[in-house]
Amino acid sequence: MKKTALWLGVLLSGAALAQSPRTLTVFTTYKKANAEAVAAAYNAELSAHKAQPVTFKFMYGSNEDAAQQLAELKEADVIWLSNAYFFDLLPAAQAFSAPKVAPVSAVALPKMNAARTWLPLSVHLHGLTYNKDTLKPDILPKNLIDLPKVSALKGRIAWGVNNPSFTEQVAALIAQYGEDATKQWLLDMQKLEPRDYGSELNGLTEAVNRGEVDVALGLSSNATRGRGSSYHIGLYSFAAGDVGNLAEFSGVAALKGPQQAQALSFARYLSTAAPQIYMSTVNFDQPLYVADLLPANAIPKDYEKIVPTLERRGNQPKAIKLFEEVGLW
């Protein structure tokens, strides 16, 4: 109730704003059905508090589109991204604002977004998932760059090279080791004959659980979501600070302009329980404002101590270029 009052208070801070017709233009990377479901729930909350509903106009695209379609984004009131890293690629970042909302989840935020130009909504971590019945984690390396050296994984490892998270992982490798070393890593990984599950991260998890492979490289934070004790999944983090422990956040920002109060209200609403829980079933991330939705072992509580601090800005195109050069794409 307190959070509802906070976001609604932003909206109803002026009587004229509360009564005038409102249209909110939102650029989002989420699917149409999911975005519209959240918008409908927002309007239902407004109606329940006798406030006038908002007419939403959605613009859909990828995280990369957010960085490339600046002209179109100038028409948006809200930018809602599944990978908030791309906020840092937008030259207009100084025109963003975000409500100041403290996370209530036991999972702490690392030091990021000091200017508070966007609001983090959820987090997911990279790492390895492994089958606890078929593999002992002590054979796994402390650093992702050394993964190809584990010859026991030949034919028993999986990845999803078409998933955007894999592009982010390789971009981080480039930031840490350079293009030449990362290209060699990709070539050496291929010698392990990994099974490729394309963009289907859930397929990676299921393959590990069924014992089709022993290890999968991907997002560890969704691996045990909703799984019972019958699941055979274990999660493995690399050494503290290694690029294999990359953390990615979803986030939202309000653009400064005539609709800023409405935009801030919607942004704040995304940090409340209902949309946090709903979106966690969509993207399998750990929400930052609702505690204990994931099993205790899904994300280390001190994960901010193990994630790397590095600048990977602009390395995504380099990663895609390497995929083409080594024949993955």
What's the CATH architecture of the largest domain?
Answer: 3-Layer(aba) Sandwich
Q: What is the CA–CA distance across the termini?
A: 49 Å
The CATH superfamily of the largest domain appears as Periplasmic binding protein-like II
**Total tally of structural domains:** 2
Which of globular, elongated, flat, extended, rod-shaped describes the shape? globular
Name of the level-1 CATH class of the largest domain: Alpha Beta
Total number of strands: 11
* Mean pLDDT over all positions: 82
Short description:
The chain is an alpha/beta fold and 329 residues long.
Explain this structure.
The protein has 329 residues and is of the alpha/beta class. It folds into two domains: 2-122 and 248-287, 3-Layer(aba) Sandwich (D-Maltodextrin-Binding Protein, domain 2); 124-246 and 303-326, Periplasmic binding protein-like II (D-Maltodextrin-Binding Protein, domain 2, 3-Layer(aba) Sandwich), CATH 3.40.190. 33% of the residues lie in helices and 17% in strands. The protein has eleven helices and eleven strands. It has helices spanning 2-11, 15-19, 32-48, 63-68, 70-73, 164-177, 179-190, 201-210, 260-269, 273-283, 316-326, and strands at residues 23-28, 55-60, 78-81, 96-97, 119-131, 157-159, 195-196, 215-219, 233-236, 247-255, 286-287. Strands 1, 2, 3, 4, 5, 6, 7, 8, 9, 10 and 11 form an eleven-stranded mixed β-sheet that branches. Helix 3 (32-48) links the parallel strand 1 and strand 2 (55-60). Helix 6 (164-177) packs across helix 7. The chain is globular. The model is unreliable at 13-19 (pLDDT under 50).
